[in-house]
Amino acid sequence: MYRDTSLAIVIIFDALDEVHEDYRKYILELVKHLMETRVSKMYLLCRTIYKPLVHEEAGTVPLEMEPFSESDLVQFLMKYWVSHGVTHMSEGDLLSAAMETVQSYRASKEKGGNALCNPLLI
């Protein structure tokens, strides 16, 4: 490898909260060591209850993800559909379709629908 070549390595550790406590400590140690390498970004995903642990043990800056509002969901769907070739609808029709989809999702979720019934799974 050339010394001047920059790497863009990204590592994602998902569901850290679901790992046995002993192994979780090992992973956090691994993260500390990886931070000293040329890894450009690392993401540790876990429930917020583990935020202090991840911050203290791995020396990271914890961030929290906020859920989309209904307005966010509508805007996301409209942009997604347009970027994937939905051009035969007016902006008003697209807005109506997105709002109906979000409402359908909310209704499904309130009735205890499973993820496979989620109309937002695109």
Quick structural summary:
The protein is built from four helices and two strands; from the N terminus they run E-H-E-H-H-H. By secondary structure, it is mainly α. The protein folds into two domains: 9-58, no CATH class; 70-117.
What do you see in this structure?
With 122 residues, this protein is mainly alpha-helical. It has 2 domains: 9-58, no CATH class; 70-117. It is 46% helix and 9% strand. It contains 4 helices and 2 strands; from the N terminus they run βαβααα. A two-stranded parallel sheet has the order 1-2. α1 links the parallel β1 and β2 (39-44). α3 crosses α4 (91-110). The longest helix has 20 residues, at 91-110. The radius of gyration is 20 Å and the shape is elongated. The model has no long low-confidence stretch (mean pLDDT 85). This is NACHT domain-containing protein.
Features:
about 120 residues, mainly alpha, two-stranded parallel sheet, 4 helices, about 10% strand, NACHT domain-containing protein
